[in-house]
# Entry
Amino acid sequence: MKEFLKLSFDKHRGKIIGLLCGLIFGIFILALGFWRGLFLTICIAIGYWIGKMYDKEENFLASLIAVLPESIRNKIQ
# Structure
């Protein structure tokens, strides 16, 4: 059984992760309502993004500036 799960995850990683994300988002919507569930999902995504940058030892502000629109970047710099 472990081998089957490992092989399935290796072969269909994106599908499985997408399925789990959809399941978790659906549970949030059912439990909290649409807007609260969406807000919680956005907070989780931002936390994941910050944690991923921390793991890679990237500069948070440099990455944030790269994501922002050019009009806002010009005001910051």
About this structure: DSSP finds five helices and no strands in the chain. The chain has a mean pLDDT of 83. Helices lie at 2-11, 13-32, 34-55, 60-67, 70-76.
